[in-house]
Design goal:
This protein has 240 residues and is an alpha/beta fold. The chain has helices at 48-55, 83-92, 109-118, 124-137, 154-166, 184-199, 211-214, and strands at residues 2-15, 20-33, 37-41, 63-70, 74-77, 94-97, 172-176, 203-207, 220-223, 228-231. InterPro entries: AAA+_ATPase (IPR003593), ABC_transporter-like_ATP-bd (IPR003439), CP_lyase_PhnL (IPR012701), P-loop_NTPase (IPR027417).
Length: 240
């Protein structure tokens, strides 16, 4: 079953004080089936993150369609979806992990992961149990669980970010350089979680500059330079 179809997607950015519009990406086309993992490759500045942010609707697409097959809402064009629909999808079906952690202040590490489940309707007891499992998996020191993330290192913040997104077991998970500042052991933990989510049926789109991390993990690769999809092969190169 096709879960995501991108047709003729385009995005440009306007620099208002220069009265200038800069194209970011154009005529992007690909589709993916449920349970697939697609890796997006290309040079820095080629628009990889723009695609992911537009699927998540952090950016509003300028052209084309992004058709997502929602479990609750049916087929929906994310380029035209209402804010209410996008809030629902982010809570219940679509997850996003970036290199950066943006969270509410004065909320502890444990509370952040718990809240991700509570907003989906889980009981407080279940949310607490699953949050602790996720934090343990990503080797977050229990001494940090009830601390505020603004005191964390970059790697700790990133692991927390990943825990918050993956604990919800989303139908579609977008990964924007999620291992950028992680050590090798932490990268392996991320890989384990991705493999587990794939087995559970999660569909994933990911950007990784670490090619070794992608090998044997991605089913297909979308190349920004050629605007084409291909079967993932060992030794794929990613410029930038």
């Amino acid at each position: 079953m096709t879960i995501l179809e991108v047709n003729g997607f385009g995005k440009a950015f306007t620099i208002h004080h220069l009265n200038k519009t800069i194209p970011a990406v154009g005529d992007i086309r690909f589709s993916m089936d449920a349970g697939e993992f697609i890796g997006v490759i290309g040079k820095s500045g080629s628009g990889k993150s723009t695609i992911l942010k537009s699927i998540y609707r952090t950016y509003l697409p300028d052209a084309g369609q992004i058709i997502y097959h929602s479990k609750q809402l049916g087929n929906i064009d994310l380029a035209q979806a209402t804010e209410r629909e996008m809030i629902f999808l982010r809570k219940h079906e679509i997850g996003y992990v970036s290199q950066f952690l943006n969270v509410m202040p004065r909320t502890t590490c444990r509370e952040l992961v718990q809240n991700a489940l509570l907003e989906m309707g889980e009981t407080r007891e279940t949310a607490r149990t699953e949050a602790e499992k996720a934090l343990t998996h990503f080797e977050m020191d229990p001494a940090l669980w009830d601390s505020y993330p603004n005191t964390f290192s970059g790697g700790e913040k990133l692991r927390l970010n990943i825990a918050m997104a993956t604990v919800k077991k989303p139908r579609l998970l977008l990964l924007d350089e999620p291992t950028a500042s992680l050590d090798q052991q932490s990268k392996l933990k991320v890989r384990e979680m991705i493999e587990k989510l794939k087995k559970q049926g999660t569909t994933l789109v990911g950007i990784f500059h670490d090619i070794e991390f992608m090998e044997g993990l991605c089913d297909k690769v979308f190349d920004m330079h050629t605007n084409k999809m291909s079967i993932a092969l060992e030794g794929v190169t990613n410029e930038g």
